[in-house]
Amino acid sequence: MNTQPTPKYFNEMLTNSGDVRDIYQQYMQWQQGLPNSTLERKSAEAELLFRRMGITFAVYGEADGAERLIPFDIVPRIFGAAEWQRLELGIKQRVKALNAFLHDIYHEQNIIKAGIISAHQVLDNAMYRPEMQGVDLPNQVYAHIAGIDLVRVSENEFYVLEDNLRTPSGVSYMLENRKAMMRLFPELFANHTVEPVEHYPQMLLDTLREAAPAYVSDPVIVVMTPGAYNSAYFEHAFLASQMGVELVEGQDLFVHQQKVYMHTTEGPQQVHVIYRRVDDDYLDPLAFRPDSTLGVRGLLDAYCSGNVVLANGVGTGVADDKSTYLHVPDMIRFYLDEQPLLSNVPTWRLSDKDDLKYVLANLPELVVKEVQGSGGYGMLVGPTSSKAEIEAYRQRILSEPANFIAQPTLALSTCPTLVESGVAPRHVDLRPFVLSGKEVRLVPGGLTRVALSEGSLVVNSSQGGGTKDTWVLED
To answer: Which residue range or ranges hold the Circularly permuted ATP-grasp type domain (predicted)?
Structure first.
């Protein structure tokens, strides 16, 4: 075990003097009593468990189309109760403001009238859906399920890296990671009071029930998937099974007189809430892409008529656009009359001439992202890129500056991780999953993603990252 913390980065287990932090003390006493061979054997058992359960994902654009396991690290990430409570307050605050923003831009547009965000930024955004203007949604909730990506840079400082409000994924890995850890290390859970996460599917089901049209007392809920070839299909099937609802594709549904029905062996059954994992563009060929075979003809009409609820709502993407991200602290002040509890990462918007000039002069030190990018695709990590890659990306920026934002290379915190050489620090982020119904709630913890390569700051599974179980210890 390397007892020296990585210089420059906050080590979540070790202090600067190399002492084990209090929240890791009990875990480390247990781990130090084990030979490395035991950890390696348990890691192999975990991989076998995940293979047997079929927990895989597909990487878009790969020629063989093969599905892969997301690497699972058996060393947990641990939070104390007090630090989690502070995080939870900031996460809830942020999601409340984002839902308020979405309701506002599709109704009175007060934030535009107040000059806090420009009409161009909202109305010309590719994710803005004019079809939603004036449509009232139950509880004024657009993003019923949100994934808020956080990075830690010091003991008491977290940054929000981005907001995922369209079809955030990864919660199945959070749940299966916990199941695997409890099966592999029951003695750890006997000795630690770890807050549970296994009630998330019930919380999700309750949230979807609360989203149903007001006239429905016992709503029929389905999970809508693009199909088995989608990279997150395992999660779609997993969540439907855990909630005890039907997993459907577009072809399983139809619209009649502005109501949505599901084909069943006993005849048509009306559907009231659709937890959809299909992007806006493919939901309804009559309203959006006419070539879509994934959606349901007339679905938008039924939705706008109030006869079915889509979770998440149509048009939420305008709020998780990376250029809109810049304005979230202002949204919190505007809608909630509060100061933000969590900070944004300092961000340059390349549509601004001064920001563009600075970024172009400092590309080797910065991270540049596409405004509507996700999954780690289409980004430049300056410090780990070659001169040729930087120059090629410079040309992309110059061709359409408004399509990019830039941020400093963050000093992501590190957590102990089992690698070939033993247990060593690796960089991590965190995605808590936030549910918004009549109230905003989340389970304690989330999906910790870890960059498995030494020195790497890219944690996305599509880019070779892995995951960890995330523990929040009770008081």
So the answer is: 76-451
